[in-house]
Amino acid sequence: MEENRVMVSSPFELRLVHLDLKGAPPKVSYLAQIFPLFHALGANGLLLEYEDMFPYDGELKPLQANDAYSSSEINEILKLAKLHELEVVPLIQTFGHMEFVLKHKEFCHLREVAMFPNTVNPHKEESLKLVSTMIEQVVALHDDLRWFHIGCDEVYYLGEGEESKQWLQEEGNTIEKLCLSHMKAVASHVVSAYPTVKPIVWDDMLRGMSEKTLRESGIAQLTELMIWDYSPDLDVDSKATLIKKYQKCDFSKLWFASAFKGATGVNQCLTLIGHHLKNHEQWLKVAESSPAGIIQGIILTGWQRWLFRKGERRCRKIPGDLQFGNRHLYEVMAPTSRLQRHFWQQYHGEWGMCKLFTFRPNGYQAQWVRDKVHSCPILFLNSDISGTFPGSEILSLVTQITFYLKSSVDELLENNRYVTGWFSPYHRKRKKIHPIMIHHFQPDALRLLTKWTTVTQELQTAMEKTFFISAAEEWMEENVQPSMQRLQGTIDDLDRAIQALS
User: Fold this and answer.
1) Helices H, strands E: what count in the chain?
2) Over the stretch 191-209, which tens digit does the pLDDT of each residue have?
3) Which of these, 230, 233, 297, lies nearest to 262 by C-alpha position?
4) Residue 371, in any domain of the structure
């Protein structure tokens, strides 16, 4: 294959791709196309974060999104995963990030803080019953599970509810104990109900706890930790220290979590490949320095939505209300995830000698060039190069829109001297236009409108083949319509000014 590569074995026995279904969830037909690619590039598992896309039933039925998968579609997804040798690990939030549950009137009384729908009240027995029922319904549709991810990351405002404030006034009670008690209750339910299933939790709520607190809690006997960090300058030494700490606290297995998309900004439409590859390279270094046998596997996370968080961290969708932009489409991230998995499964280092290279696992093709600034590969967006991965048409169209739609409209309406000088907001409001000036910019405006109308219609069609209509409409409204409406409005005002001349 490519020259200037050093073949190495993977330090990760389990290599899972995270599918975050809370924003622009793909149709099953698209998953049928992308799963073979995941397998071809070395992935052997999926972390499925269902959120509101799971077909909850009975008292949990309100949790379903309008486009939630049906039970038969879940079965089809699981069959496709098995066909392509991808082990499934479900992820259900059970503590923080419970917006998709606690926003509903049926469950809002279970909020830790009445105003905020993010964290469940750990003092109420009904809270544990709620998340236990969610877990039971998800497990019921999955066979042969070995792990179940119960979330528990970024449990913001814990301890700020009225019941928590009263509880914390009692001697010996702390936020740490409150956090661990709920985690243990949920994990204990999983272990008790499903003895062959091991709960996984995100590690961030535990990082600052003392070794004594963690050991005495017994959480290590119930769960496996997933350490996450999506920064390109991840500190390898600090991660090695953290791993040693967790080992001393009796955690026998740890997972790592890097990211292939969605961890770089609230309005990121195109994936910053250099950022994610640097992050993954750092995780490889952490793996190399880790004790033998401690690493269970690695997850490549791919976040879809953003929602306000303390500290202005990553954000997430709250379906229905308080909703935030759905930016990172899976098609836009596909080349990044392909190169990352190819990188961490088979090759390590030696990029500097290779200026341009192509890889074709099982017929899929993409081309990349070296980014001299960030010292890692970036997608080569040359019109002569066409990718053939599932969704490549969407990537091409999204790239055009991201780089050129707004800038081309801004150039016409803000930098064209005939527009700024003779058709300013003042002139538009009064429908005034010099006849000569019409010919100086009307043809350009109409050509621009025609061009982008064609591109956006092509994108709408391509997206509706992959996503539900609501997701396609949302992306277009957020990323296309503002510029298109601005352009169309200018042309409409021009037409009215022309009519006023006659």
Assistant:
1) 17, 11
2) 999 999 999 999 999 999 9
3) 230
4) no
Give the pLDDT confidence score for residue 439 in this predicted structure. 87
Q: How confident is the model at residue 131 (pLDDT cuts 50, 70, 90)?
A: very high
What CATH code is carried by the domain that includes residue 246?
3.20.20.80
Q: Amino acid identity, residue 452?
A: W
Residue closest to 131 by CA, chosen among 115, 141, 119, 143? 119
Mean pLDDT of the chain: 82
Q: Which of 177, 183, 217 is nearest to 201 (CA)?
A: 183
Q: Domain range for residue 43?
A: 14-346
pLDDT bin (cut points 50, 70, 90) of residue 388 is: low
Q: Which two tokens stand for residue 321?
A: 């209300």
The residues near 138 (Cβ < 8 Å, ≥ 6 apart) are 50, 54, 90, 92, 148
277 in any annotated domain: yes
Helical spans, DSSP H, in 41-161:
71-83, 99-102, 125-140
Residue 324 has pLDDT above 50, yes or no: no
> Does residue 123 belong to any structural domain of this protein?
yes
Between 138 and 312, where is the model more confident?
A: 138
Residue 325 and residue 411 share a domain: no
Task: Extract the tokens encoding 425.
Answer: 């907001």
Burial class (CB in 10 A: 0-12, 13-18, 19+), 175: middle
Q: Work out how many domains the chain is built from and give that number.
A: 2
Query: Same structural domain for residues 323 and 433?
Result: no
pTM: 0.77
Distance (Å) of CA 49 to CA 22, 54, 89, 388: 8, 9, 9, 27
Beta bridge partners of 16: 45, 299
Q: What are the catalytic residues?
A: 154
- Strand ranges in 360-421 using DSSP code E only, listed in sequence order: 366-371, 376-379
| 198-202 and 147-149 beta bridge pairing | parallel
DSSP symbol at 143 = S
